[in-house]
């Protein structure tokens, strides 16, 4: 880790100000992505803005009508066990329960994960499928306009995610094929039938440019929301990652398998 | 250098630290609590697991400064005098360790697991919950047995030192 | 059997400190005034170093010194050595290239040591290292094992122009060719034994210290054999003469072979301690461990098995290319030769065997012994061949093995080994019963109903432990003897300290060795302490590897205990005023035969020291004896492991459903510890078969350099193991024990692959059988095209 200046602001404005003033400053929420990167000297912030003091303000899970609003600093472990969420969007709680391991889940946050937009992270698949809204200290951003590619998001310099609003779907399911070593998603598929009947199928871990929609699968499921409906549907290896763990063809195949299983989970 | 203060194994400590000091370095180097180990640089092995405000965390993936004001418990803080924590005892009884390097992290993770999932843990749950703890020696067989037995033993209130209440 | 004696599942005495966080590992050692070392490592697999400029780094805050290979050369510090001389078939000695602790002129693998920065803090050392400017001329890298000899370009070492270290052979060529000529059937296979990265959970570490007043050095190091480390650092590398160098290996967090060797980092730490006049500490980051710990395995093999018309194996031919990496590590040359070829006969009576092994250099991390060392490679070859041959011949794989088992002992193989004792069928029968072999077809049918593939695979392994006797291994090229030492010090109050030359890093010697002593002397186990891992305390020893500590290390203790008993009898005779021959020793008591006159062990100890009851000129006072034990033969643990897998054809994921191990380790000192050793070995072997693949790209970059990319076995990867034993007593040591530390790792890989190929219906799958590899293999299965 390189040396940095440590800040522990007590307000959003103060936190944002440090970032605006220092081009190489970074926020830290749970640190479960940022600190490993800093330890390997892959990230090198001049200033680290620890959001820990804002935890009370930025965490919590509450139902607001047809949405569940989750504070950005809410931890995966809290999300996985939230009664509110388990009742409203069990697939999202189930997703949180398989992010990393228990110790990671007791520090890592939903906001941190969505801000980071790792192409193998889980939440981006849910956000894009469910049509989540990313709420920041400045504005609200629809998921459809939020994910801009590998580790790229619509967030501006110094913009802080404060909460994520999740519309409650009719049904949803998530299946993840873990990278055998890192345990991140090698292929993760989220399927959702939204309240208005629209079907979304999103894929994480597989795409060379991050989370994406599998529209062929959406079409098939719109006609018939069952795993059987996906029997003839195949994902194309085009644009999928090839690495030492999986080639694009295998990933494409797994997209199909995970999609069928996610539908099965959603309809169980 | 900024100052950090926290409660470690029931004692308040306060030190000036380089901001880049990880909690694990703070425990090991500043407090000489060397029972907490480091086995990787990618936050995956769990040799470093401690409890912070009652939850298992990887002390290699937390700045000491972020833990300011927290109550931290390490492997050294589990036993009450000569009385081992039931989970420690279970690891011994079931030969849940060989070289002992992963052991502190395993025990801290196991106690946290009991706090979250209760005393009756089936084998499948235990194996899944140990996802973040790597052991190279034991093949996990006896660790799994030890965790199940330790979880049961933690039930008997008389045997549970204050710590386990976290 | 007493509650703490031989054969009792005594709880481990060392556990107390580990479960309370009071273990003392090298990284827990801190010396007053210590500085910290960081090694600048080569980013290139193969490059000439044109220049190194350290000036800027030296000026960085906190920096104490920066050293390069030139400083080592100036100080006449010798290079690292390989301690086992192998000769090629043409009689020429192996081609050992130079191995400086810090590179001199060239770097030969990614992670090779270029310079060391020593600073007040580790962060400062690491920061300053980035300021070192190295000008490299990058060369083509040799990476591929099979292609190393024909790679062209600049060889890894000048002494080996075609990158060949040696061309070894063993066995009997003509009879083997003759057997193949008259064979009714020949089974052929091509195998890759995948390169593994050991990954003991404690990374390697070293603290070097120098006492200016006495000009003595102390090195704390993560070692499996501190005495060998001292010998090499002293006699070959030239740090200091042995009496001026103390090596301490305190608690060591697993080794699996990787901590046998003498490495660059500890050499530099202890040398630099004097140069900077401060203790110097280094602890590997995990990435450094991946890059620079000696790796294991890495063979490419073609093998053929000849059978006659009745299904008897009549010949075996093996050709292997073994990748030794960029330098010859301490025992690297012995692994693919004498630890490999002599084991290829397996449990079978094979009259003719011929083995050729070409060892090659490459621009990859050095390869040396890793749990099993040569024996897993041999077992993989013979057990894959036996399985495939049985399938080709339409025979039941268990019965085909049984038909070819060695059944009369001693049995001389064509490849050096003389098996002393064993009952291979006993292990097979027990394993078949435990796994419910007859129920397998029903289980397979049930899996198929769920759309899953099920397979069952065997591994009937033999291994050779406790490499010895010394004269024999010396004639094969070993640079050291492979005996073990023990010293038993009885204190005047009857407590006992046993100093052993073997080393425990998870094996539980503080318990098992004490069981032996307690049992033999009839004293409470709490009165016995086991001392190891410090060259100032234990005079000399050979350390722990090759499952040798029981068979060799404990035998040395037995020998010392014999002497103790003899001496104690004499003392007791004087005290009890009886002839020595009339004294009986039992349950900790010396009794005059046929009387009730007796004295307990502790009182004899006191009498030995006060020396009031005997003439000190005739009988020396005191009670302390030492022994060196050199075994008469290897020991031959053997057994049968059966693995049953279920494969999800949709994803290629393999789950192990059953694991049955039936091992013959001879006499067990502590069955609880033995079982634990088997569990751990199986997990490592399964890791090799299913998960652990080391990947270098074509330029020699290690792509699997962290747990993000190198899959370590985790708890949910395993079922509950079923571990049982059979027993034939080992005749070559007084305790009858054979060794158990490596069996699981040796047995497991072929059991897994035989199960997977059984499920697939074809043999075309390599290790590690990852989900992708299995999924691809299923698509190559004509009759079992998965429903996709
Ligand atoms: C061993 C391990 C396994 C893991 N496995 C998985 C997995 O399976 N699936 C998965 O999805 N993730 C996984 N993760 C990552 C984990 O989920 C992280 O918690 C998450 O990606 C980041 O959250 P954090 O709170 O730790 O963020 P941090 O690490 O603190 O920050 C990450 C990034 O987000 C920025 N940031 C943080 N909070 C905000 C905010 N509120 N507003 C704006 N920017 C912000 C930071 O500046 C930083 O750039 C794993 C991590 C580890 C260590
Ligand atoms: S040291 Fe913390 S997870 Fe490995
Ligand atoms: S006991 Fe050695 S790593 Fe677990």
Q: In a few lines, what is going on in this structure?
A:
Chain B is of the alpha+beta class. In chain B, 31% of the residues lie in helices and 14% in strands.
What do these coordinates show?
- The complex is a heterotrimer of chains A (268), B (166) and C (788).
- Chain A is α+β, with helices and mostly antiparallel strands.
- Chain A has eleven helices and 14 strands.
- Chain A has helices spanning 12-21, 34-39, 55-58, 76-80, 83-88, 90-96, 102-105, 110-116, 123-130, 215-223, 248-267; strands at residues 5-7, 25-28, 47-50, 61-64, 67-71, 133-136, 140-142, 147-149, 152-153, 161-167, 171-178, 185-193, 199-204, 212-213.
- Chain A is globular.
- The relative contact order of chain A is 0.12.
- Mean pLDDT of chain B is 94; it is low at 159-166.
- Chain B has helices at residues 23-30, 86-93, 103-117, 123-129, 141-153, and strands spanning 3-8, 11-16, 49-52, 55-58, 71-73.
- The radius of gyration of chain B is 15 Å and the shape is globular.
- Chain B has five helices and five strands; from the N terminus they run E-E-H-E-E-E-H-H-H-H.
- In chain B, helix 2 (86-93) packs antiparallel against helix 5 (141-153) and helix 3 (103-117) crosses helix 5.
- In chain B, strand 1 and strand 2 form a beta hairpin.
- Chain B has a five-stranded mixed sheet, covered by helices on one side.
- By secondary structure, chain B is α+β, with helices and mostly antiparallel strands.
- Chain B folds into two domains: 3-77, Beta-grasp domain (Ubiquitin-like (UB roll), Roll), CATH 3.10.20; 86-157, DNA polymerase, domain 1 (Orthogonal Bundle), CATH 1.10.150.120.
- Chain C is of the alpha+beta class.
- Chain C folds into three domains: 17-139 and 201-254 and 259-292, Aldehyde oxidase/xanthine dehydrogenase, a/b hammerhead (Aldehyde Oxidoreductase, domain 3); 299-468 and 633-787, Aldehyde Oxidoreductase, domain 4; 483-629, Aldehyde oxidase/xanthine dehydrogenase, molybdopterin binding domain (Aldehyde Oxidoreductase, domain 4, 2-Layer Sandwich), CATH 3.30.365.
- Chain C has 19 helices and 28 strands.
- In chain C, the strands form seven sheets. Chain C has a seven-stranded mixed sheet with strand order 3-5-1-12-9-10-11, with helices on both faces.
- The longest helix of chain C is centred in the last third of the chain and has 28 residues, at 549-576.
- The termini of chain C are far apart.
- Residues 784-788 of chain C have low confidence and may be disordered.
- Chain A binds chain B through residues 1-6, 8, 28, 31-32, 35-36, 38-40, 48, 50, 52, 77, 81, 100-104, 106-107, 182-183, and chain B through 2, 18-20, 22, 41-44, 46, 49, 55-58, 60-63, 65-66, 68, 109, 112-113, 116, 129, 131-133.
- The structure holds flavin-adenine dinucleotide and FE2/S2 (inorganic) cluster (2 copies).
- Flavin-adenine dinucleotide sits between chains A (26-34, 36, 72, 99-100, 104, 108-109, 111-113, 115-116, 118, 121-122, 155, 160-161, 183-184) and B (43-44, 61).
